[in-house]
Structure formats: structure tokens, C-alpha cells
Amino acid sequence: QVQLVESGGGLVQAGGSLRLSCAASGRTASSYGMGWFRQAPGKEREFVAAIWWSFGSRYYADSVKGRFTVSRDNAKNTVYLQMNSLKPEDTAVYYCAARSGYYTDSPENYNYWGQGTQVTVSS
């Protein structure tokens, strides 16, 4: 089993920045990857970004491309989401998730989930 815990959320003004962290513990496997998802009130969960351990491949949703950066620290088994130029529409609960297998942006294909961290962006 893999356990995930997110941190770093908060309240910021539009144009500000936040960095989210997701620390993983437990057994990992080859082709391991971690993704970020978000869910706003009344909305479905949507893909934000992901990073795969092999080659450090990175993937982004069009809505955050150019503003968000996903990175990893292998020694700490932690993935980060640097969020810049935040907009009110970025307001959501952000979740990290883990999967052993090939890259996918479908939340149904991720096996492990954190509890989420709230990000609120004011105008």
C-alpha cells in the first residue's frame, strides 16, 4: 500500500504563487508515477499535472500549462506542484495520486489518493 499526504495549500491573491507537496510512503514499483488533480465545488475532478519516475516525464493540462510546474525529489519520495500566476478559477481542493503503470490523465486509473489540500485564489 502507498500512503500520500499533501501540504502547502492556502489563500492567495490572484497573480500569487503556491507550492504544493505530496510525500509518498510505502511500496513503489516500476513505471511509477504521481499526478495532481483538483476538484472545485460542483465540478468533477480534473487532471492538473503528472510526473513519471522514468525519465522524469512531465504532463500538464492545457488550463495550467505555462503557469504550473511539477517536479520530484527522489530522495524524499516527494512530488511538488509549483503554481504561479494563480487565477480565481484555480480555486479547488488539490489531490495527489499515485499509479504503477503507464501515464494516464484519467483519475479512475490511479490507485492511491491523498486527503487533499485547499487552494483558494481571491480576486
Jot down its keywords.
single chain, 123 residues, mainly beta, 7-stranded mixed sheet
Content of β-strand: over 45%
CA-based shape = globular
Low-pLDDT parts are none
Instruction: Give me the count of strands.
Output: 11
Mean pLDDT: 93
From the alpha carbons, calculate the radius of gyration and give it in angstroms. 13 Å
What is the CA-CA span between the terminal residues?
40 Å
Helical content class: under 10%
Category from helices, strands and their pairing: mainly beta
For the largest beta-sheet, the strand count, sense and barrel status come to:
7 strands, mixed
Number of helices: 0
SSE series: EEEEEEEEEEE
What can you see in these coordinates?
- This protein is mainly beta and 123 residues long.
- It is 0% helix and 54% strand.
- It has no helices and eleven strands.
- The strands form two sheets. Strands 2, 4, 5, 6, 9, 10 and 11 form a seven-stranded mixed beta sheet that branches. A four-stranded antiparallel beta sheet has the order 1-3-8-7, with no helix packed on it.
- A hairpin with a 6-residue loop joins strand 4 and strand 5 (46-52).
- The chain is globular.
- The N and C termini lie far apart (40 Å).
- The model has no long low-confidence stretch (mean pLDDT 93).
